Each structure stands twice: as C-alpha cells, then as structure tokens.
Amino acid sequence: RTGFVAIVGRPNVGKSTLLNRLIGQKISIVSSKAQTTRHRVTGIRSDAAAQFVFVDTPGFQTQHRNALNRSMNRTVTQVLKDVDLVFLVVEAGRFGEDDRKVVEVLPADARVVLVINKVDRLEDKRRLLPFIQEMSAVYPFAEIVPLSAERGTNVDELVRAATPLL
Ligand code: GDP
Ligand code: MG
Q: Which superfamily does CATH assign the domain made up of 2-165 to?
C-alpha cells in the first residue's frame, strides 16, 4: 500500500512534531511560536506494510486576516485536495472554534483520522474518554488515536490504524 497523508490542524497542536516522529527525523521545524511551518514539508516512511508520504502543513489560521495567513491557509486547502488520507491533529481536552474551522475546510469526501496529541499533558487520564466521545460527534472520523508526538507514545498505533485506510 502507498499513499499521501496530509497532517493538518490549527497552529501549535504538534503537527510538525508528529511528522518528525513518524519519519524518525527532524525534518520539520518545531516551535512554540505559531507560523513556524509556512510551507508544506514532506517526509516518507516505508515499512513492509505500507509506504506513507506525509505532508506537514502550516497551522490553519482563523485569527488574523493578512496575506501570509491567507497564503498559508491556501496551502492547507490545496494539500487537502490531493491526498488519500488526512491526519487532523487536536490537543487532548481542547476542541475550540479554531479547531472547528479546520474541520470545516475538510473536503466533503475526506477520509480523516483524528489524532489527539499531547496526551502526556492530561493530568487526569479519565478525561480522555469523554473527549473521544465528544470528538466522535464532530465528524465521522475513520479512526481516533490518542498519542504523544513529543514522547512517541502510541505513534506506532497511529501508523497501524492508518495503513488499511490508504
Ligand atoms: P505545529 O505548529 O502544529 O507544527 O506544532 P509543533 O510541532 O511546532 O509543536 C508546538 C509545540 O507543542 C512545541 O512547543 C512542541 O514541543 C509541543 N508539543 C508537540 N507535541 C507535543 C506532545 O505530544 N506533548 C507535549 N507536551 N508537547 C508537545
Ligand atoms: Mg508546524
């Protein structure tokens, strides 16, 4: 199996950290500042079961309307148009208006895996289950995978879940 996977989400959810973790290289810049990823960044991961081409994208911007943000958002919508699968990244326990805006730009027929990142930050792990339930009402996600991109926890599970969706 082989396919293109877009990594999308609002700024700072950990998209670039996830790309680096998925391919095992520091290819995309990670920063606590928004707008660090201004262009698409592509990385390949091959194993016996599948070859993934991951495309990291700029954070989708809904706060300020300016030329840079418009151009970054255009990059996101363009990438979304020609991929086989989407990883929509959100932060554990937080789904706000800016996250919802990203859901709204998903193409109608997009196949989407929800990545709940930064689970290491959840002090009370019991909050994860109601959050997953809340999220499953937002969009018909093909899979929902909680993980920590920074620590690498459950990232292999994301790959396992995504492989049959390519
Ligand atoms: P992007 O804007 O979505 O590409 O986000 P980045 O990958 O640049 O990460 C934004 C910030 O979140 C950085 O400070 C990362 O170190 C941090 N971060 C990313 N993944 C995790 C995670 O799994 N856990 C925690 N605690 N922090 C993370
Ligand atoms: Mg980034």
A: P-loop containing nucleotide triphosphate hydrolases (3.40.50.300)
